[in-house]
């Protein structure tokens, strides 16, 4: 079963779904650099500023999706992000970060997982398409068992709950859904060797077709376990959604074999002793 198409009739009131930007989101950084046209959000980076947006509410468990068309041409030094994050220094966070490159070279997609303020769980992939020509779909699915990063409904990464091994897992902090574009030429392209060419500015990334089908925690002081915890009434906790289907597992294996460039779990130079979740 394709778990992203599984959405039973028995819904709870905490699940929302909407595609209009203004209903779900608000600018949180440089609003004058964001142009909203119905469902479309055009985020602009120039030599003065980048910009960003965030959801008006926060969520715990479910699915968050957006379609994105990335900066065309020479995008070296730029980063476009679609991510989820809670607040504070001990925050949880799930990241899609698109690392720009010089014309003719592929975009790199970096994903990361933060738990209780600790990240350093990067993976980098190439994509099997040009993400600047048309819109493609990027999704987070997460429950108390695992987190899945998906591109056009194909899983590219799974982060499993391994709390029994002493690994922190993001299951208690509600996260907002966010997007941004900014200058990161100190690291984003070829380790910072290629800088942003501002003569190509403005750099524009366009987001559309937003969907959030998740447990809404508002205010954040609500009892997360009581509202978003294990229940047969909550679609993300169904037994069929506690692991990848056989088909999805084959897709993940294909992506890892052909498109995975870097995995922190394989980086023995950076970490002499691999993180517990990698064992």
Automatic annotation (TrEMBL):
Signal peptide positions (record): 1-18
EC code(s) of this entry: 2.4.1.207
SUPFAM superfamilies in UniProt: Concanavalin A-like lectins/glucanases
InterPro entries documented for this protein: Beta-glucanase-like, Beta-glucanase/XTH, ConA-like_dom_sf, GH16_AS, XET_C, XTH
PTM text: Contains at least one intrachain disulfide bond essential for its enzymatic activity.
Role: Catalyzes xyloglucan endohydrolysis (XEH) and/or endotransglycosylation (XET). Cleaves and religates xyloglucan polymers, an essential constituent of the primary cell wall, and thereby participates in cell wall construction of growing tissues.
Family: Belongs to the glycosyl hydrolase 16 family.
Protein name (database record): Xyloglucan endotransglucosylase/hydrolase
């Amino acid at each position: 079963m394709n778990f992203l198409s599984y959405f039973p009739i028995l819904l709870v009131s905490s699940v929302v779904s909407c595609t209009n930007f203004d209903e779900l989101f608000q600018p949180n950084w440089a609003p004058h650099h964001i142009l909203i046209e119905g469902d479309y959000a055009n985020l602009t980076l120039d030599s003065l500023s980048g910009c960003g947006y965030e959801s008006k509410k926060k969520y715990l468990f479910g699915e968050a999706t957006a379609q994105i068309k990335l900066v065309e041409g020479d995008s070296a030094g730029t980063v476009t992000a679609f991510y989820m994050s809670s607040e504070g220094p001990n925050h949880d966070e799930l990241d899609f970060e698109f690392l720009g490159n010089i014309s003719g070279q592929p975009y790199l997609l970096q994903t990361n997982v933060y738990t209780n303020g600790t990240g350093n769980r990067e993976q980098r992939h190439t994509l099997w398409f040009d993400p600047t020509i048309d819109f493609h779909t990027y999704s987070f699915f997460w429950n108390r068992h695992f987190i899945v990063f998906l591109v056009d409904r194909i899983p590219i990464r799974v982060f499993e709950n391994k709390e029994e091994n002493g690994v922190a897992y993001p299951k208690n902090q509600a996260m907002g859904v966010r997007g941004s574009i900014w200058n990161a030429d100190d690291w984003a392209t070829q380790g910072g060797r290629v800088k942003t060419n501002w003569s190509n500015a403005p750099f524009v990334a366009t987001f559309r077709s937003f969907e959030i089908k998740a447990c809404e925690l508002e205010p954040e002081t609500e009892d997360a376990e009581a509202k978003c915890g294990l229940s047969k009434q909550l679609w993300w906790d169904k037994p069929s959604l506690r692991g990848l289907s056989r088909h999805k597992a084959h897709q993940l294996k294909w992506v890892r074999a052909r498109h995975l460039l870097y995995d922190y779990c394989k980086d023995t130079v950076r970490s002499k002793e691999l993180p517990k979740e990698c064992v």
